[in-house]
Write a structure and sequence with these properties.
This protein is mainly alpha-helical. It is built from six helices and five strands. The protein folds into two domains: 77 residues, Multidrug-efflux Transporter Regulator, Chain: A, Domain 2 (Orthogonal Bundle); 67 residues, no CATH class.
Amino acid sequence: MEETLTTTQIAARLAISERTAQRWIAQKKLPARLLKNGRYVVSSDDLKALEPTYTEQAIESRLIELESRIQALSARVGELEKQPATGAPVRTLRPAPVPYNSAARNETGIPSARSFAEAHSVTRWRMEGQIKAGAFTATPVVVNSAGRIVPSLNQEQQAAAIRHWDSIGLEYTRCANCPHTAKTV
């Protein structure tokens, strides 16, 4: 017995819309029989005869569409490459620097190495590593009655830190007191 397919089944089998299957029947691309209920059915043999042609046409039309899109995108890339760059270069955003004020200073009046680093958008770990590596020195200062010792930077040490950062090309935020040059008496 011959298998017959409705337009819905044809659409599912060929991955097309049902409307496309109906259009093919109306254009006589696909031979069909009209049933009493007003629906069309197509012989599976007739559909099999159409499948290779449809598949080739579908692939060809898709390739043509994709090539057209590639050409359009290539043209757009060419246009964008010809345009001058606008705005500043993209840079990594850093949090706003901590205000460099007397509140960040200890009882001796010199800032801790950590607050100095934060005021210049440098991580405390980088600052501690540079002090341990001997890039510059810090003064140990007792900051509370429990005897907690905090590395702090006097004016000369601050200037040494800035010079070191400049020499290694470290990006840091300059504060109002930069470049922290040591005062000569």
